[in-house]
Design brief:
The mean pLDDT is 92. A six-stranded parallel beta sheet has the order 2-1-3-4-5-6, with helices on both faces. It has a six-stranded parallel beta sheet with strand order 9-8-7-10-11-12, with helices on both faces. Helix 8 links the parallel strand 7 and strand 8. The longest helix has 39 residues. It folds into two domains: 143 residues, Glycogen Phosphorylase B (Rossmann fold), CATH 3.40.50.2000; 169 residues, Rossmann fold (3-Layer(aba) Sandwich). It starts with a strand and ends with a helix. It is globular. It is α/β, with parallel strands linked by helices. The protein has 14 helices and twelve strands. Helix 2 packs parallel to helix 3 and helix 8 packs across helix 13.
Length: 347
Amino acid sequence: MKASTLIAWAPNSRRLSELSSLLGGSVWKTSILFRVKASAPIKYALQAFKTLVHLRSTMPKLIVVQNPPVFAPLACMLYARLKEGILLIDHHCVWNVKNVRTPVLRRIIRALESYCCRFAHLNIVPNNCWAAEIRRMNREANVLTLVDFVDEGWLKGADITVRERMFPKHRWLMVAPCGGNPLERPDIAVRAAAGFQDLALAVTGWRKYLKKHVREAERLKLQNVYFTDHLPEKAYRGLMATCDAVINITDEPFTVPHFICEALAAGKPVVSTPNPAVKSILAENAVYVKRNDVESLKEALQRLLENYGHYASRARKAYERLKRMRREQEKALKKFLEANAKRKLAA
């Protein structure tokens, strides 16, 4: 197999960076007016053109492209057909299910995703919930689950002074990373944290995407809730290394946020909504809320603080379980690529 290229239409992709370490090759990213919905028709056309130019100049035999948006796989599919390349689509999610709300647009996006899934040599998904959705969308799609996994070496070089510098007055530190998706519920975490005097809550992520939550915390005059904005990489790693737990409260049923894997690599317990995707990864090794509301999260946090050693042990078990899953899935992926490489040589 010759050189591979991994493509994302986004400013960054931790998952593709990790896949590049596994598969070799380089990550190439293009992003124009990211998250500006009104610019979609123009920016997607420009990004498709840039992608085809990049592929034509690099001539990879293996293309791994991230979905969404589905127009990225469509562009790569055109190149793969012309040059007989192997196309893998890495589904961060199924776009028509997670993000598209307008019924007519959803049907269009679903048809495009179904077509791409069928054409791709392999569809990679981060959990079995998305795998089932792709199979419902297209029975002929070839699907492999490859869970996110973060090696403990990720913590090397972390700025472990960040907790002492930013949160010196609090005994406990909870971190709630947020990307700004409307289905995320940092508002619940903010209100729940208000009930704990010796606990600090750090909400990470770009403040420009979290404005309403920032305003709410300011209105309530909360002294133990901090919106850190986007942190430098070493500081973010330091925060994950030195916090006591991470919080994942979300109305999204099928996503396992990448930060859960980061927390497990650092040995940190996870407080989470018990959605099917998260439970498929963590089993019973997390502190689950009964409902997505303030009182349920307060109760879960109290459970965690009263039994911290127990849940820290559970986090380590979850990490070992995740490691075993990932190893087996990596073997299946490598076996698939080797078989396809042999077929290409024989053709």
